[in-house]
Amino acid sequence: MIRPGLLAVTLAVVGCGGGSSNHHGESAGGGGGSPTPSSSTLGGTAAVGAAIQMGTVTAQCSDGSGFTSTVTTNADGAWSGEVDSAGLPCVLTVTGGTPPVTLRGYASQAGTVNITPISDMVLALATGSADGSWVATPASWPDTATVNANKTELLAAMSDAGFTLPAGDPFTRALVIGDDWDQVLDSIQAAIDDDPALTDYAALVTLVKDGNLAQFPDAPGQGATDPELPANLSVLTDYAGTYTVIGNGVGDPGYCGGCGAANRDHLRGSVTISAQGDVDFDTGIRFPVADIVAIDDRTDVPTDRRIAVNYGASDSDERIRLYLNSDLEVMEIIHDDGQGATTRALIQEDAGDPDPEPGAELLSGHNGVAVARDGHVWAIEQPFIETFMATTSKRQIRANNFDDGDQIQDTTPFVGDEQLLWAQVNVAHGNLGTQLCGESTGVSMMTADMDATPVVWKTWTATECELSVDYHFGNGATEGRIISATLTNDKDTEQVSLSDGQFRIFIHTGKEGPMPALADNLSHILMVDSGTREMRSGYFIEGKTPEDGSHPDHYIDVKVSAGSAYPGVGTYHCDSSSASVSLAMGWVTISSPLFKFQSSNGGACTVTIEQSAARKYVGSYTATLIGPSFDAFGSGLSQGDTELPEAERTLVVHGAFRNFTTQMFHAANQGNEGPLGSEAHGITLTIDDGSTHFTAGETFLLASEPSSNGNNGYFNRPFNELPPPVGELRMVWSEIPMAVGSYACSQDVGGLSPSMTLSNPAGIPYGTVYYQSGVQNPTEGASCTLNVTSVDNGEVAGTYSATLVARNMGPVLPGGDDAISVSGEFRYPNTGP
C-alpha cells in the first residue's frame, strides 16, 4: 500500500550534488547582494503555520562558517542569505521573532530550505537530541542520506496518524503561508492541543527524538484511516495490480473446486485492482473502493485461502472473492452479483512480454526514460534534467514513476515485491555514439517495497553499461538508447540486468485546443501552426513551464518587436522594417545562449500593434521562424550538437502579446495587512478608489528601505508568489519638507517640490509628476497632500492622501482606468540636521 506523501520525497534520498539556477532568480526576504561564484544562496520560509516574523536566522555550516550577513525573516516568514559553497551542509536555526520559537532546518545544497516543526522534528529524530546541542559538533552531524531517511519515517508516521500530506518535499518546496503544507503545520499544533498526553510542542519533539513515532498524535478531526472504509483495506490493496485471465471457469470448476461453475463468461483479458482498492473486473463491472462494506480475511486458512470483499450487508449480496495458493498468490477471482450470476476468472501471473526489438520506440514519441527487464518495459514520462548538469560535462536525465498525487504509474514489480520509483541516465555532455559506464555515464534507479515495515528503499547503480547517444543539443535536448546495463543495490548482493531502454528529453508539445485570449496575468501566448522536431504542436504561455514533462528550468521565451520602443497602432513587416520575432528555448544559463528560432534567419513575420500608449502596447503576430545552423550568428549551437536540416527547424507560429499585465494585486489577510504600528518604519497604503490593478478597500503595508532618509522615502512590499525583479510594490517619495505642516505635491516649498510614484509588477507606473528634458511636471489629474506631524527622534511621521495617475496609459488599460486614490500613515528615518 502506498502511503500518501512518501513518494514525493524520495528524490532527495540520493543527492546528485551541485546547485540550482532559476530563470527569474530567487525570491528573498533578507540578506543581500548577488552570490559570488564561491557562494551559495539559501532561502525559504520559517513558519509554524503562522509565519515567524522578524526572526533571526543563523547558519552553522560544516566548516564552521555561516551567513555572510545578518538574515531576518520578513512579514511572510521568508528569508534569504549567502554561505560559502564549500561549507555545505549547513544547519539553519531561527530564533526570536513573532511567534518567539526556536526551530532548525538542514541544507545539503543551495536553494530552498524551509525551517518548520517538520524539519525540526526530522533533525531531532536523526540526532536523538531535542535541544540542538549537536549543532556545535559538525563531525557528529547526520549525513544527508540519514536526514532524508528520517524525513521519510516521520512523514510516514504522520500519514499513518491521519495527516493529509501534499505533494512535494516540505524541506525544499516553496512554502507560502496558507498553502497545503502550511496547513499541515497548523494541523500539527491542533493535534498537540487535542492530545492529553502532550503538553506542548517540546513534548512532541521529545517523543519524536526518542523514536516513538507510533505515538504521533492523530490529525485533528480525523483518525488514521477513512472511517467510511474498512480498517483492513490493506488486505485487498496488498494485491493491487493487473492480473491476466487464462480461463473463465465454465465447465472446468477452476482453482476453487467448491465454488461452482461460472454461468457468465468473463469478457476481458485482465482483472485490475488499484492501489486505492477499486476493482475493474469485467466489461461494465467496476467496483469503487467507497462501496466496500466489509473485507473478510481468510488468508490463514490452509484449505481455503481467500479474501472476500463484500459490497452488501451479507455474503448473499454482491461480492468479489480472491482465491490464493499456499504462497498467497492469486489463482482465481470470482464475482457474485447477489442475483445468482457468477463470473470466474482463472488467473495466471504474467511471465513477461517478449523482449522489445533492439532500437524499438519505447516512449511512444514522448519525453522520458524507459527501461526493460524480463520482457517488461517501464516507460516513464515525467522526466527532467538536473539543473546544474545542463551544460556541464555530465547530463542527468531522471524520470519519476509516480504522479503529483504520489501514485505509482506502472505498478508492475521491478524485482521481487519492489516497485520502480524512478530511473536515471547520465551521459557525457556533447558526446554522440557509444558511451560506457564511467565518471560521466551511467544508469541508476530507486525501488521500494512499500508493504514492508519499515519501507525498504534500494538505490541501484550500474556497474557495467553501454549507452548510445544519437541526438544532442546544448539547449538540454538529448536522445539515445540503453543497450544493456547490470546494476547492484545498496542493501544486499542482488543484481539486475536491463536488456534495452531509451531516454529522451527535447520534445515540446503545448496545450491542445484553440489559442485562448491573454489572461490578466499573462503577457504572451504562442500557437504552433507547423512544428519542428523539437516543438511539435499546441500553444505555450510565456513564463510558464512547458507542460510536457520538461524540467522547470527549461523555458520557451518569445520576443516580438515592431521595430520601435514606442510603436504606434499599425502593421509592421520584418522584410520591410526592423520588426522581428524570435523564440529561444532550452536551458536558461548565463554562460551560453539559448537555442534560437528567428525570423532574421531567413523567415518572415508580420507584427500588428492593436492598442498603443507609446511605452505600453497590445498586439498580435504571425511568423515563420528558422532554427540555427552552425554558421548562424548567436545560434546557440555548441560542440557535439546535432545540426538539423532546415525542414526540421522551420517553425510557423502566431500569437498575441503585450508588454505589461492587467492583473489585480491584492493585500494579504483578506485585503488588510494591518496598521503601521507604533515603532515600525514604512507606510500603510489604503486603496480608496481602485483601478485596473488595485481593489478599493484593501490596505497594503510597505516597509521602509534602508535608503529612506528625510526628504526622500523609499518603501516596498514583495509579492512572494511572483518572480523578482518585478515581484514587488514600490513607492518612492521625493523632496518632502522636513518640518511639521501640510504640503501639496508639485508645489514649491522652500525649493522643494514633493512628489510620489508607485510601481508594481504589472509594469504600469502611477505617479503625481513626470519628467521631460529633466524638468519635473505635474501629471494632469494627479495630486497629493502630506501632513507631516512629527520630525523628532530621528524620524519623520504623518499621514498622506493622493490621486496617482498612470500618465498616457489609458488607451491600453481596461475601461481607460488609469488613476488610483490612496491614503495612509507613514514613519521613516530622518538623519538630517
UniProtKB/TrEMBL annotation:
Segments for region (Disordered): 22-44
Listed Low complexity bias regions: 35-44
Protein name (Swiss-Prot/TrEMBL): Uncharacterized protein
Species name: Alloalcanivorax gelatiniphagus
Record lineage: Bacteria, Pseudomonadati, Pseudomonadota, Gammaproteobacteria, Oceanospirillales
